[in-house]
Amino acid sequence: MADLGTFLDVDYKRRILSESLSVNESKIFVRGNELEFGSFQSIEAFMVNAFEQNEDGAKALAKSNLNDEELFLMNGFKNMSAAIILFLILVLPEKVVSVKMRII
After folding, report:
1. Which residues contact 19 (CB under 8 A, 6 or more apart)?
2. Which residue blocks in 14-103 are alpha helix, DSSP H?
3. What pTM, to 2 d.p., does this model score?
4. Strand order, beta sheet including 19-23
5. What average pLDDT does range 94-104 have in this prediction?
6. Do the beta carbons of residue 38 and residue 26 sit within 8 Å?
7. What tens digit of pLDDT does each residue of 72-93 get?
8. For the chain, N or C: smaller number of CB within 10 Å?
9. Where are the domains of the chain?
């Protein structure tokens, strides 16, 4: 869910209220007031090199750099995962995996 303000209100401070990503019924992340991570097991093959060894640091960095005006999926998450996972999520969801992306 995004708080976009009124039409053509250029001074309104826009922000993302919530977003979530699930792959094959497995919660990857949920963003509300805070960013919460689920299991990366269903997408571990697509995570960047050495993610597993640095998972705690990557999660802490993602939480501390969360931008109110940007989708985590398009900014922080893409830095944690290889580009191929975004391609799979955004372009081929019906053919590759069962993906639920909820941005309200």
Report:
1. 1, 30, 31, 71, 72, 73, 101, 102, 103, 104
2. 55-64, 76-80, 83-90, 93-96
3. 0.69
4. 35-37, 26-31, 19-23, 99-103
5. 50
6. yes
7. 887 788 777 766 666 666 655 5
8. C
9. 17-103
